[in-house]
Amino acid sequence: MGISDIFGFGKKGKKENKNKGKEEKTPFRVPREVMALRSSIEMESRENFPKLARYQELVRGAQAVYRSLDGIIANTDHADDAMRIRDDITKKLDALGAKIKSNVNEGKDYAEKNIDYLERKSTRNSAKTLFTEFLEAYEFFLARCREGKPGESASLDSATDVMINALSALHSRFVKVYTKDHEIQGLKDKAITKITELDQFCTLNAASLEGQGLKTQAESSVKRLQNAAKKMSES
User: Fold this and answer.
1) Is the pLDDT reported for residue 93 higher than 50?
2) Residue 63: CA atoms inside 13 Å, Cβ hemisphere, count?
3) N or C: fewer beta carbons within 10 Å in the chain?
């Protein structure tokens, strides 16, 4: 056994030889612009309703970042790291774009449903306006009959014209058109019921109307209204 073996000089020399010729790999440092872009994408993705304009800015910013990463990929020392980061940015941008598209589609669906609701509401309100005109003339007609004043034939005739015109418009513009709308069809049923009640009122108060000189006019008005009710009921 030599002196070198006793003090271990030979073994130490072998270990040193193993590391000879090897260069240490420098750690990969993510470029600052890459970190900033990833942070911006993540921040926008956390929004419930990310902005399309902001997304487009991020896409433009990603092009410059991709060029920077492509340069690193060309240098094989950190190619794998740069490729992983590039793929990660692409996936995050794709997810953000899909979220914006989904929000846009949901918004369109909501708008279409809302517009449909508003159109139905407007249609029903127009039908209700005509029905209100009919009711106001109807109440006026009854009031003239109940007051017991003679010489109201012209008033009854005028009120009947208003009722007939309102019912005719309600029938042609709404009842015949919106056959499946329960509210509009309900207005038709209410109008028919009111005319039936008016007929019953005139029958029960025939003597009083005769004394006022209104019986003939009242009966004529009821017949005209019954014809209008018949047309509506056949729709």
Assistant:
1) yes
2) 5
3) N
Place of tokens 């019912």: 167
Q: Are 41 and 58 in contact (CB under 8 A)?
A: yes
pLDDT digits (tens, 9 = 90+) for 137-147: 999 999 988 88
- Token pair, residue 164, equals 């007939």
Rounded Cα gap, residues 191 and 183, in angstroms: 13
Place of tokens 């990603």: 62
123 contacts 98 by C-beta, under 8 angstroms: no
Can you tell me the distance from the alpha carbon of 159 to that of 113, in angstroms, rounded to the nearest whole number? 40
Residue with tokens 């014809």: 227
Nearest one of 111, 114, 93 to 103, comparing CA atoms: 111
The DSSP-derived string for the chain is --HHHHTTHHHHHHHHHHTTT--PPPPP---HHHHHHHHHHHHHHTSSS--HHHHHHHHHHHHHHHHHHHHHHHSGGGHHHHHHHHHHHHHHHHHHHHHHHHHHHHHHHHHHHHHHHHHHHHHHHHHHHHHHHHHHHHHHHHHHHHHT-SS-HHHHHHHHHHHHHHHHHHIIIIITT-TT-HHHHHHHHHHHHHHHHHHHHHHHTHHHHHHHT-HHHHHHHHHHHHHHHHHHHT-
